[in-house]
Amino acid sequence: MSQPDAWRMIRRRAAAACIAEEIGCHTFRATGITAYLANGGALEHAQEMATHESPRTTKLYDRAKERLTQERPIQDAFMIGVNEVATGAKSAKSAMTTAAEKANAAIHG
Question: Is the Cβ–Cβ distance between 14 and 104 less than 8 Å?
């Protein structure tokens, strides 16, 4: 899949999930770091992967103690989907569909 095709797919999935905010490279970077930390990754390794100079910057991505709230359901559902793709548990299309369903359920109950 070409990069433009991938971005079109992501935009379609975001629109289907009623995600109004812009999704870009930083969304994936932040989601990857957050997923890594949420799954028990070491802060020092996350800092190195993110090329952050200060561990305090990387610590901002550590949401392990947060619960899914009305303010973050989309990001949290998206993070779950990205993690499923990263671990090979699901295809990108399947994971994005699941993430959209989880986000909608979290928002609409």
Answer: no
- Beta-carbon contacts of 1 under 8 Å, excluding residues fewer than 6 positions away, are 9
Query: What does each of the 109 residues of the chain score in pLDDT, given as a tens digit?
Result: 787 887 888 888 888 888 777 777 677 788 888 888 888 888 899 899 888 899 888 888 876 555 444 456 666 666 776 766 666 766 766 766 776 676 666 666 5
Structure tokens at 92: 């990108």
Total number of domains constituting the chain: 1
Residue 86 structural domain: 3-108
Amino acid at 62: D
CA distance 54 to 80: 26
